[in-house]
Amino acid sequence: PSLSRLMKDGIGEGFTRGDHAEVANQLFASYSKVQEVRDLSQIIGEEDLSPTDKKYMAFGRAFEAQFLNQGFDEGRNIIESLDLGWQLLSLLPLTELDRLSPENIDKYFPKKA
User: Fold this and answer.
1) What is the DSSP code (8-state) at residue 77?
2) pLDDT tens, residue by residue, 10-42
3) Count of CB atoms within 10 A of residue 17's CB?
4) Coil, strand, or helix at residue 101?
5) How far apart are CA 52 and CA 49, in angstroms?
6) For 67-85, how does the pLDDT look when each residue is reduced to its tens digit (9 = 90+)?
7) Domains assigned to the chain
8) Beta strands of the chain (E only): which ranges?
9) CA-CA distance, 19 to 12, in Å (whole number)?
């Protein structure tokens, strides 16, 4: 079986949390967009990026620093990782979060104080 099939069969309600697949898909898609925006910034400069592209740059830096660079001594469980994923995704405009259902956005998206 493929890794994606194994993941699909082992995540979600009853295994991890109902939003797991959506959050993972959105994080991967958003980080992929970061790579495109970084390439563009090499050509035109970061200061000339659109406001949305600048948010992707900020998301990329935060995603790498807080999510990807989890240290050996950081004991983050899957629920904490999902919550961190939502926190990081909140750096982007809601209109960019097209892989998240409205129900999960209502339930998990961090509320601004």
Assistant:
1) -
2) 666 666 899 999 999 999 999 999 999 999 999
3) 18
4) coil
5) 8
6) 999 878 888 899 999 999 9
7) 3-108 (1.10.1140)
8) none
9) 6
